[in-house]
Amino acid sequence: MRRARTSIVAHVAASTDDIHLEVGDVETLDQIAVRGGLVQMSELAAELQVAPSTTTKAVGRLVDKGLAVRHRDRHDRRVWRVSLTEAGVRAHTIARDRRLAFACRVLARFEPADQEAIGRLMPGLAEALGSELRIPIGRWADTESDTSVARR
Questions:
Q1: Which pTM value belongs to this model?
Q2: In this predicted model, what pLDDT tens digit does every residue of 87-99 receive, in sequence order?
């Protein structure tokens, strides 16, 4: 399932027209967007399940592309937070919409009754897989709309 998700994200990343996004870029954009506002770098690293240095590099790529901005915490100057720029929000929206369109194309191959069954079972499957693999549910369904794809 994780490999399938990574392949889907890679397809979306490669399909983003105006800015080249790697798989890690899309996942980092997703996590920042889901949280909205300013996200602490250490929280982002924990959610992405990567080392803080990896998060620093990923955020650096987004900053270099004009998709994110780093901010020092007002109360603790040792802490850095990150937020999306307007271009970052647009890139995230494009990637999310393409991911949803891809899922809808795949689901369209199934009969309506099967689509409904998939929609009904997918949230439980994602939760069970996440629990077994100790991956937060957000890693399987990064936005509320992602979990509703099968129900369309």
A1: 0.71
A2: 999 999 988 888 8
